[in-house]
Amino acid sequence: MLAVEVKRSKWFRGHGGDRSKLLIPETGEMCCLGFACLVAGLTKADISDRQTPSQCHFSPDNCVPVGLSTLVDYESDTGICSDLMRENDVTLNPEDEAGREAHLTFLGKLAGIDFTFVD
């Protein structure tokens, strides 16, 4: 299981999928999967301005890291990856954030990711 610590102060969530990125270079904010990509071994340059893990240009010569293998099938995102992105990006009232974190924790475990939310 990939242990991923998500720092709330740098976590970009709840703004809709069209605005979400693995890493927003201007602010340094990341969606939950951006944090996971870094832990799995990708660099900030690999994930900068990319909306989904599959946009990181994996190929047989540039293999998907083991920790992300449930999220990406080289050229496309898996169903569980799409579920995680949808939950990260859905607009909620601030009082619903605990529910978002609980649901992402549950979905993450299905994907082999152990999310912990801090600060």
Characteristic terms for this protein:
single chain; 119 residues; alpha+beta; two-stranded parallel ribbon; 4 helices; 31% helix; globular
Overall description:
By secondary structure, the protein is an alpha+beta fold. It is 31% helix and 13% strand. The chain has a two-stranded parallel sheet. A two-stranded antiparallel sheet has the order 2-3. The longest helix has 14 residues, at 97-110. It has one domain (2-118). The model has no long low-confidence stretch (mean pLDDT 91). The chain has helices at residues 32-39, 44-47, 79-89, 97-110, and strands spanning 2-7, 72-73, 76-77, 113-118. The radius of gyration is 13 Å and the shape is globular.
In short:
Helices cover 31% and strands 13% of the residues.
Number of strands: 4
Distance N to C terminus: 22 Å
Helix content: 25-40%
Count of folded domains: 1
The poorly predicted ranges are: none
Helix tally?
Answer: 4
What summary fits the major beta sheet?
Answer: 2 strands, parallel
Strand/helix succession: EHHEEHHE
Structural class computed from helices and strand pairing: alpha+beta
Radius of gyration: 13 Å
Strand content: 5-15%
Arrangement of strands in the largest sheet: 1-4
